[in-house]
Amino acid sequence: MLDDATKEFFVERKTAWLKGKVKASMPEEEIVRLEKEAEEKFSMDKWLPDAARRVAQLSMVSHPSKFSHPSARTSSIIANAPRKADGFLRTGNSETTLDVVD
Q1: What is the C-alpha to C-alpha distance for residues 44 and 3, in angstroms, rounded to an integer?
Q2: DSSP assignments along 41-52, one per residue
Q3: Which residues lie below 8 Å from residue 46, measured CB to CB, with a gap of 6+?
Q4: In DSSP terms, which residues pair with 99 in a beta bridge?
Q5: What is the Cβ-side half-sphere exposure of residue 31, based on CA atoms within 13 angstroms?
Q6: pTM of the predicted model, to two decimals?
Q7: Collapsing DSSP states into helix, strand and coil, what is residue 24?
Q8: Tell me, what's the pLDDT at 21?
Q9: Of 1, 6, 22, 68, which has the fewest CB atoms closer than 10 Å, so is most exposed?
Q10: What are the tens digits of pLDDT across the range 37-87?
């Protein structure tokens, strides 16, 4: 059985997906079909194997290049620099956690 946080995650994903697909001018039958498709797409049995396949596209980074320029064609990196009490804002002087990018 899914815990509440997992259920909420699937509801949020399904709601966002439907919001992008359902239009006010659509016939009711089409809306019902999309809702059924969303139920299947965002069920644990379907979503989890699909997510497992997509995870290979993700990378852990400390400096994602896309933050500064969305169309950048660079590689994001993980930087580990020593702390230096020089008063500058730089990698070694800030504490952050890694992020995930695709």
Answers
A1: 12
A2: HTSHHHHHHHHH
A3: 40
A4: 61
A5: 9
A6: 0.58
A7: coil
A8: 95
A9: 1
A10: 999 999 989 999 998 998 888 888 887 776 667 777 777 777 888 888 888
